Amino acid sequence: MRKLLALSLILLGGCSHESQTSDINGLWINQAAIDSAAQGRPLLQTIDAHGMNLEWNIDTRNGKVQFRNAFELNEGQLLPKAPGTWAIYHDGHLINELQLNGKQLIQQPTKTYAAQVFSRPARSVAGARTDTNFRQVLNAAYMGGQWRIVEGPGTGNTVAFKDDGGVTGLGQNDRYELCLGGDCANQGAGNDTLYLGKGDIGEGWIFVRHGKQLEIFKAINLSLPDEIPQLTPGPRQWLLEKQ
């Protein structure tokens, strides 16, 4: 009797473990894009190379998903397709398939996009909008650490970019935001851009990242006042070097 009880407990434990490891509920971020960008590469090119989507937020209990790219939030219905595989529908049309591979969630390739790899974030931001977790992990990996102003106003000062979008040591600015795509990318005409400001007042800048060096240029608008802005690099304002 004891042997049968022990065997039953082992089988139940095995089923519980299998269920736990196949659970995709919760947040997943495009960690591959972050890891590649963290090597000091151009940001928009790196994100584009790893696919459009930045995050998945999955609610398996209600069969719902939210997924965000650089400029919009989308929603869909989640339906199991096969063990470890789920189908995503939007307005009744199949748009994506997700497959669990160990600790990675794979967004299957389509005719338009290559496969994308997502991982669970090491930490999540409670109550945050859907892309905040990706953005904060990216900020920490891409802009984190201490930088020294090599040339420009405040030469010799230490600059710190925080993962929540705060910045210190860069003039009067206390906020920054990296452009990940959408209108800001179109206006930048392929250049990497970021927002720098103090409180609610700020402006767009163009930056160039090469390894441990970061150049920040004034953004010159070539468009007429009634046209969509088209920005091009102007005079360099700062040259930063990561310490």
Helix count, DSSP H or I runs of 4 or more residues: 5
Could you give the count of β-strands?
Answer: 16
Oligomeric state of the chains present here: single chain
Q: How far is the first residue's CA from the last residue's CA?
A: 66 Å
Q: Give the proportion of residues in helices.
A: 10-25%
Unreliable sequence segments: 1-21
Strand order of the largest sheet: 1-2-3-4-5-6-7-8
> Which word captures the global form?
elongated
User: Which CATH top level class of the largest domain fits?
Assistant: Mainly Beta
- Could you tell me the strand content as a percent range? 35-45%
CATH architecture of the largest domain: Beta Barrel
Q: How do the strands and helices of this protein lay out in sequence?
A:
Layout: H1 2-21, E1 26-29, H2 31-37, H3 43-49, E2 55-59, E3 64-68, E4 73-82, E5 85-90, E6 93-101, E7 104-107, E8 116-119, H4 132-143, E9 146-151, E10 158-161, E11 167-168, E12 175-178, H5 183-187, E13 192-198, E14 201-210, E15 213-221, E16 231-242
Helix pairs in contact: 2-3, 2-4
How would you portray this structure in words?
- The protein has 243 residues and is an alpha+beta fold.
- It folds into two domains: 102 residues, Lipocalin; 99 residues, no CATH class.
- Strands 1-2-3-4-5-6-7-8 form an eight-stranded antiparallel beta sheet, with no helix packed on it.
- The radius of gyration is 22 Å and the shape is elongated.
